[in-house]
Specification:
disordered N terminus, 208 residues, seven-stranded antiparallel beta sheet, elongated, 5 helices, disordered C terminus, alpha+beta
């Protein structure tokens, strides 16, 4: 009887040991399957970085489109009188994804051209605006750049516009006054500005 009892206990010990070993092997296998190489870590890091940049780009595109739409509504002009242009071109209307350029300081730069001949068929003459946008917390920082004839930034004005429920009124008020001031009816002031290197604003014929 004692021999049988001992045999039974020994069998139980072996069963427990086999179960423990099997559990350890399963755990080791699971850990191995979860282990990734350093190369895979780099690939995953790149994928995540790319996703974040694409998300930032897409949000910036949408914001720029809202900005243009808000300016057009503010001025009361038709959609045909305002368009995106690339900063290196300035005259050829294009799509937002071709107009926007990512710069080293993290801003997206793009141009807007406002046609200033009411009811005129394209091509028309227009006023060029160069803007740069970048997210900062819950807002976009919007810079209105003044560019000289050599394509250098000589001045800039900055505005903070909420990423959600954006209010463009302050920016639009400034743009309106800026363009209106450009066409100052006082000839003496115009000549003085031209003599001092008047910032580029007025363009010739736009390409259709």
């Amino acid at each position: 009887l004692n021999v049988l009892a001992f045999s039974g206990k020994e069998s139980e010990r072996r069963r427990v040991e086999r179960t423990r070993k099997a559990g350890c092997q399963s755990l080791i296998g699971a850990k191995r399957s979860q282990t990734v190489s350093k190369f895979e870590e780099l690939c995953r890091a790149r994928e995540e970085s790319t996703k974040q940049f694409v998300s930032y780009r897409d949000e910036s595109w949408k914001f720029a489109q809202r900005l243009m739409g808000a300016l057009g509504s503010y001025l009361g002009c038709s959609p045909e009188n305002i368009c995106f242009v690339a900063t290196q071109d300035r005259v050829t209307p294009t799509h937002i994804h071709l107009a926007m350029e990512f710069t080293n300081d993290g801003f997206w730069q793009f141009g807007l051209v406002l046609g200033l001949q009411k009811g005129a068929p394209a091509p028309v003459e227009g006023y060029y605006l160069q803007l740069a946008i970048k997210t900062q917390g819950p807002s976009f920082k919007v810079k209105l750049l003044q560019i000289d004839a050599d394509n250098k930034t000589i001045a800039e004005n900055s505005f903070m516009v909420a990423r959600q429920n954006a209010d463009f009124r302050e920016l639009n008020d400034f743009i309106f006054e800026k363009i209106k001031g450009y066409f100052d009816p006082d000839l003496d002031k115009v000549l003085e500005q031209m003599a001092n290197g008047r910032p580029i604003g007025f363009l010739g014929k736009l390409e259709s």
